[in-house]
Structure to design on (932 residues):
């Protein structure tokens, strides 16, 4: 049997697997909980640890980038080839809080391997998936006989993802020249399940707002005045009820303007996935499926824009009763956006719509917190095809497509850097992100290393540099 | 000029006015704030003071009735005539909290007379209006040459009205035999204004509930699951929006069953009142009038049943945003009821309606806090005619009719004792109940004494005893 690139990669990985896992365990021992100020020093230690490891991996340039919050790590390894495309890998080195008493069977910051799984906070989200790129790039060099990657490889590993990425856009904007690239590879997502390797092709966008309604200048007596003056709680509820029509479509005029409809092919690809609605409802802690008529559950969460009530508050909420007409009401709404929608236009549609719904005597304010754009890579995009081929070589299986219903900092990279965002992740739903006993499947983790090892050559061949 | 009963009453009142006001001032000095446990001894002192004064007035039986809360005062003065009807006068001796720093120009518990007004907490609500019955019954005896009233006169003056009358129904039930009567006269209301003497003919009833909706077992991610599972905040809002139709009529099937519609005469009588909508909106601290189509503001608040949202709560209500589908939602609703409506049937209608509105996946609970029945005395009721004539003799003006939009313990007396409830009050909106600088107009207060003095003979002549 001759040495193919694939067999070299596998041999290289097998040889270095034990050291790789020892190193990862060291990193997982650092409780880099970004949401807890008491762990600020640990988050910094985690950044420094990663920086040292990336230097050891061979990255000639490694820097810790400060923000007004937690530090990020930047690393760069230029290709020796001319006209090589440039890629930024995105991930994060901070983790969710975790404590033994939350239901962990073992110390969340003392990694344990059992039955082929590595248990620790951050094993899957996201240290494990960041770390597979270190062994991946070494295997890539070994298999191709290179001393530098086939692409100009940059890593940007942030430290605040689990606490809201507050300073991330700022960071990307400040370093936009250093981060210039042809594509972003996000390694902070997962696959459909253990038996169904998939590539995520996009995330929904998000814009969220607060609507305050003002009625009487103070709470007033519902006996003396009720039924004869407008009640802001009633009007807030009528707004929410008017958000959707009988088919549960969003009823705000202009909301769907520009929405990129699913193609027949995309719907078929979604339908090929082994979706189990009962299991999905369990994961949603929910007792019924309900959404826009004419779409399946997967289509609703991956490819359709939504209007959701995140919070409602008005009047008396204590024990018992208080017969008032409340003075004010407050609504928190979030809108998930899909490709083709413009957040600014959606915001204006919401403002116009609210203004037209309210009766005389109710004053209102609408304030948006922000907007994250949707991202979607077309199925025939050359970089996406490279990711699919790299995953296919690692898994030896047909690679299917998923999307993410959520929204994330990946979209900032897309927007600021003006490039497509691709996803390379091997985590599975059972990994328990943010939950007790988070784990990563070791076999899948090594497939991640393998896919990363194949990706750079494929991209260099197939994705044009600009 | 010969001595008519009216002139004797006036002369008697003039003669005793100074002593009457001195006594009232003494009572007003007792800060009988029932809502504040620190004033429990003052509330008891107020009851004892009143009991002593009623004995001095001539009531042969005076008792302080204990409750699990504050004490009430009961007094009884039987008529010497056979077949005399029996009347219970209702009022209360406790007052709202008051402190100089709330905006009082003088000490709220040190009565001050200025420009024909007596300023003190309780001057109008309700000590002044209870107290006019003491001089009233004496003037009645003087004018008719009696040594006992023309009716069997009973007084029930409770001590918890300003803190929710928690033990009042219990008290009335426990003493139902002692309180047996042919009619109740409530002296705890007011008139239209200084220039428009009126008699209130009824109050609305009330039943209020809490509706809890349960969706996902915990708050869930609106990106991962939103748009594909039912959201209890959305469903709560849709319930509220469905409470009223486009004409702002209550849309719950069966809600209007039995409602006693306004007659043409009643509507004309309402329309005769000098209603100033702008002034009324100011008193409602509101910026628009809105209610059931086809009815005026006065009709809406006095004679139409309503469904009002008193409170709404779901999901995230803090600063900023949190992109969740909330697990639960809570609604507080109150329904004002009018004559002819049955609170039990309304409650069942609400339960049935809620159950039919919710999608699969939303569990719900409906709990009612209680029910107060509406009361309404027909315009041609002989006892109401007596009240109108007594007021007419006191004021020398046409007496018009009002109603109360609120609900009160008067309805308990109606229900437990099974008799009509009538209202005799001389307070005016500018008296500032529950507000700083509460006052009573001394001229109106003395008209109250006069009306009370005339009422007992008229009732004895015109209202049959049972």
């Amino acid at each position: 049997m001759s040495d193919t690139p694939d067999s070299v990669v596998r041999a290289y990985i097998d040889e270095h697997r034990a050291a790789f896992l020892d190193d990862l365990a060291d990193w997982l021992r650092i409780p880099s909980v970004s949401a807890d100020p008491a762990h600020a020093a640990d988050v910094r230690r985690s950044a420094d640890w990663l920086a040292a490891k990336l230097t050891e991996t061979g990255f000639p340039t490694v820097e810790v980038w400060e923000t007004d919050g937690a530090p990020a790590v930047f690393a760069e390894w230029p290709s020796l080839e001319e006209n090589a495309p440039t890629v930024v890998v995105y991930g994060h080195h901070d983790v969710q809080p975790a404590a033994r008493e939350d239901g962990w069977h073992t110390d969340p910051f003392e990694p344990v391997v059992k039955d082929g799984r590595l248990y620790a906070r951050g094993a899957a989200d996201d240290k494990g998936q960041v770390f597979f790129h270190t062994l991946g790039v070494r295997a890539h060099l070994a298999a191709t006989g290179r001393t530098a990657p086939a692409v100009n490889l940059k890593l940007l590993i942030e430290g605040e993802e689990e606490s809201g990425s507050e300073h991330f856009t700022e960071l990307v904007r400040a370093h936009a020249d250093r981060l210039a690239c042809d594509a972003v590879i996000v390694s902070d997502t997962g696959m459909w399940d253990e038996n169904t390797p998939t590539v995520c092709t996009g995330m929904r966008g998000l814009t969220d707002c607060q609507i305050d309604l003002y009625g009487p200048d103070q709470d007033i007596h519902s006996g003396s005045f009720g039924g004869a003056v407008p009640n802001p709680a009633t009007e807030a509820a009528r707004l929410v009820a008017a958000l959707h029509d009988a088919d549960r479509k969003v009823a705000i005029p202009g909301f769907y303007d520009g929405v990129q409809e699913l193609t027949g092919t995309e719907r078929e690809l979604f339908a090929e996935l082994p979706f189990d609605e009962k299991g999905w409802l369990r994961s949603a802690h929910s007792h019924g499926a309900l959404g826009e008529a004419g779409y399946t559950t997967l289509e609703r969460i991956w490819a359709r824009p939504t209007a959701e009530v995140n919070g409602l508050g008005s009047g008396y909420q204590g024990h018992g009763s208080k017969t008032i007409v409340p003075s004010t009401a407050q609504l928190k709404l979030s809108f998930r956006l899909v490709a083709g929608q413009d957040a600014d236009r959606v915001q204006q549609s919401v403002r116009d719509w609210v203004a037209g719904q309210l009766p005389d005597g109710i004053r209102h304010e609408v304030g948006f917190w922000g907007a994250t754009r949707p991202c979607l890579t077309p199925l025939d995009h050359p970089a996406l095809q490279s990711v699919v081929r790299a995953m296919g070589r690692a898994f030896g299986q047909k690679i299917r497509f998923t999307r993410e219903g959520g929204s994330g900092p990946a979209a900032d990279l897309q927007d600021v850097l003006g490039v497509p965002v691709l996803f390379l992740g091997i985590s599975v739903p059972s990994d328990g992100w943010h939950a007790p006993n988070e784990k990563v499947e070791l076999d899948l983790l090594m497939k991640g290393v393998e896919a990363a090892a194949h990706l750079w050559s494929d991209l260099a061949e197939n994705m044009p540099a600009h």
